[in-house]
C-alpha cells in the first residue's frame, strides 16, 4: 500500500488537476480532488530508519524537527525500533514517537520564504511584501512559545527603530509562521 501512496503523491505533484477535466460542468468532483491533493502534497512517506537528526517528521499530525534518534534492537527476531525526540516547528513543544525502523512515516514538506516587512500594526499583524511586490497581511507576530515570543519582541524593537527587516516565513502542513528575521542589506 506504500507504493500506492507514493505514486498518488507523485502524480498529484506533477499533473495539474484542472487539465484532467477541462470541460467539466459539475464542480463537485474538482473540489474533492483539491482537498485530497492538499492533504497529499503536505507530506511525503519515508522509511523511519532513513529519518535523521535535524530532519523533519510528522508526530500526532504535527510537523516536527527531529532533535534525537535512537535505534533499539528488540530480541533475536524482533525488529529494530526508532525512538524519535522532536520539537513542533511551530510551537516548540517537545514530542516523542516510537516507530519500527522498517515502517513508513510521514515527513512534512517544509518551505521557507523571505518577505520584506512593510507594516506592523498594533494588533501584531504583519505587512509582508514578496519579491514581486505583493503584500500579504494575514500573518501575525510569532507567538505560542518562548522562542517565538523572543523573536516577536526582536522584530517589534527593530521595527520601532526604523530598521528594514527581512522575515522568513516557515510553511508546513497548511500552517505558516515567521521563524527568523534579518536586517535587509543596505543598498549602496
Automatic annotation (TrEMBL):
<keyword id="KW-0963">Cytoplasm</keyword>
<dbReference type="InterPro" id="IPR020189">
    <property type="entry name" value="IF5A_C"/>
</dbReference>
<keyword id="KW-0251">Elongation factor</keyword>
<dbReference type="InterPro" id="IPR008991">
    <property type="entry name" value="Translation_prot_SH3-like_sf"/>
</dbReference>
<keyword id="KW-0385">Hypusine</keyword>
<comment type="similarity">
    <text>Belongs to the eIF-5A family.</text>
</comment>
<dbReference type="GO" id="GO:0003723">
    <property type="term" value="F:RNA binding"/>
</dbReference>
<dbReference type="InterPro" id="IPR048670">
    <property type="entry name" value="IF5A-like_N"/>
</dbReference>
<dbReference type="GO" id="GO:0043022">
    <property type="term" value="F:ribosome binding"/>
</dbReference>
<feature type="domain" description="Translation initiation factor 5A C-terminal">
    <location>
        <begin position="109"/>
        <end position="182"/>
    </location>
</feature>
<dbReference type="InterPro" id="IPR014722">
    <property type="entry name" value="Rib_uL2_dom2"/>
</dbReference>
<dbReference type="GO" id="GO:0045905">
    <property type="term" value="P:positive regulation of translational termination"/>
</dbReference>
<dbReference type="InterPro" id="IPR012340">
    <property type="entry name" value="NA-bd_OB-fold"/>
</dbReference>
<keyword id="KW-0694">RNA-binding</keyword>
<dbReference type="Pfam" id="PF21485">
    <property type="entry name" value="IF5A-like_N"/>
</dbReference>
<dbReference type="Pfam" id="PF01287">
    <property type="entry name" value="eIF-5a"/>
</dbReference>
<dbReference type="InterPro" id="IPR001884">
    <property type="entry name" value="IF5A-like"/>
</dbReference>
<dbReference type="GO" id="GO:0045901">
    <property type="term" value="P:positive regulation of translational elongation"/>
</dbReference>
<protein>
    <recommendedName>
        <fullName>Translation initiation factor 5A C-terminal domain-containing protein</fullName>
    </recommendedName>
</protein>
<keyword id="KW-0648">Protein biosynthesis</keyword>
<dbReference type="GO" id="GO:0003746">
    <property type="term" value="F:translation elongation factor activity"/>
</dbReference>
<dbReference type="GO" id="GO:0005737">
    <property type="term" value="C:cytoplasm"/>
</dbReference>
<dbReference type="InterPro" id="IPR019769">
    <property type="entry name" value="Trans_elong_IF5A_hypusine_site"/>
</dbReference>
Amino acid at each position: 500500500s506504500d507504493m500506492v501512496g507514493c505514486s498518488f503523491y507523485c502524480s498529484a505533484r506533477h499533473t495539474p488537476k484542472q487539465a484532467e477535466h477541462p470541460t467539466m460542468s459539475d464542480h463537485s468532483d474538482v473540489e474533492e480532488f483539491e482537498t485530497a491533493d492538499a492533504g497529499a502534497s503536505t507530506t511525503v512517506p519515508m522509511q523511519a530508519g532513513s529519518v535523521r537528526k535535524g530532519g523533519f517528521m510528522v508526530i500526532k499530525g504535527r510537523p516536527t524537527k527531529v532533535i534525537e534518534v535512537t535505534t533499539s534492537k528488540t530480541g533475536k527476531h524482533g525488529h529494530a525500533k526508532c525512538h524519535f525526540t522532536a520539537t513542533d516547528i511551530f510551537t516548540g513543544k517537545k514530542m516523542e514517537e516510537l516507530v519500527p525502523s522498517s515502517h513508513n512515516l510521514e515527513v512534512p514538506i517544509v518551505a521557507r520564504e523571505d518577505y520584506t516587512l512593510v507594516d506592523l500594526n498594533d494588533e501584531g499583524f504583519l505587512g509582508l511584501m514578496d519579491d514581486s511586490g505583493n503584500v500579504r497581511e494575514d500573518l501575525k507576530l510569532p507567538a505560542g512559545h518562548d522562542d517565538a515570543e523572543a523573536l516577536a519582541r526582536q522584530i517589534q524593537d527593530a521595527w520601532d527603530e526604523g530598521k528594514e527587516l527581512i522575515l522568513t516565513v516557515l510553511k508546513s502542513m497548511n500552517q505558516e509562521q515567521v521563524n527568523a528575521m534579518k536586517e535587509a542589506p543596505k543598498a549602496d
